[in-house]
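phosphoenolpyruvate mutase structure dump, as promised
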Amino acid sequence: MVTAYIGMTVDILHHGHVNIIEKAREYGDVIVGLLTDSAVADHKRLPYLTYEHRKKIIENISGVTQVVPQEEWDYVSNIKKYRPDYMVHGTDWLEGPLAPLRVRAISALNEYGGRLIEIPYTDGVSSNEMASQLRALGTTPDIRRKTLKRLIAAKPISRFIEAHNPISALIAEHAHVDVDGKVRQFDGFWSSSLTDSAARGKPDIEALEINSRLQNINDIFDVTTKPLIMDADTGGKIQHFELNVRTMERLGISATIIEDKTGLKKNSLFGNDVVQTQEDVDVFCDKIRAGRAARVSDDFMIIARIESLILDKGMGDAIERALAYADSGVDGIMIHSRKKTPDEVFEFSRIFRQNFPHLPLVCVPTSYNEVKEHELANHGFNVVIYANHLLRSAYPAMKQVAHEILRNGRSAEVEHELLSINEVIELIPGSK
Ligand code: SPV
Ligand code: MG
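structure tokens r here:
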């Protein structure tokens, strides 16, 4: 059997894929190496569709003989494994960030006499272009909700950033930088009680009505596609939490984080400068169980946030609570700290991981902000949340402009600091 190998992601199937399959068929039986979520995750945005859904689509395309997983961005290990007689690829990798993959693929093929066939890239279709069209179409609550679990499974660490309104969420949705040929971007949004409250000029004391928080998230969802984790403070009364879990899940929120405090909640970063009471372990476990029982699908995650280190209760208390919450079936643990270094959260993770090697761990490095994401990942964290940075960056800029206008009696001096009208139009689809 003569074989021809093609590596593909097939998120949005288009005629470019069909062209390449037809070409490969001229050489042999077509093996599609379908890139897994983790093969893609480090290099570009996670595909909209799961591996299983993408597999179902591609294996039903005529001309495809076999679909196998390609677990890496690089082709070499599958070339070695399947030893195809031909490998077929578009000419888009002759230069640019994909060029090193080409060099390695050629040398792997040369080892046994496999041949590379390159065909011109189909004009007018690029996956990136398709992705922006898909963004314009939006997403569904189901697809959005599931994405957090997929990210956790696919990436060493997923990065979330606070969005307190739709325009900050649009910035978080689109921000990207190229680092070493990989596109780095935020994986999703954090709906922060602190910044949602601050944006409305209110203190972070669980005073905003949940409906106003959810309406804000709904407005964010109107114009974005990435997943969102909601800070639900203490979760409130158990019976209210059960109802709110249903609403969050239906909206397409991926996870809620509830903190083990009781009474009038104050922001954690105050620590013991204000009176804050931690919830009884058993009562909090009941809340976790009630929330889990209330949800419709297990795509929606309930994550317990431990405040022991914030309140100087010690590592022993933090671990004891973490083990109890994990035993009660929670879907993840967030350990919070207000120290300047990550030492105590690393220590927490080291001990916790001895008991629960895989339960997702979340951290919020607001005070220990020198730690790098890869260090957090190496210490067992799955999700990092930049909990307040877009709000904190917006307001100094506004204040500065307000002062300059007052000082100068006009706005000309600050014009260069402002978003141009063209940039507004670019950021907000449908403006023209
Ligand atoms: C929030 O962003 O509202 C949080 C994180 O709960 S913290 O402000 O650090 O308590
Ligand atoms: Mg909060």
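Residues 138-387 form a domain with the TIM Barrel fold (CATH 3.20.20.60).
lmk if u need the other ones
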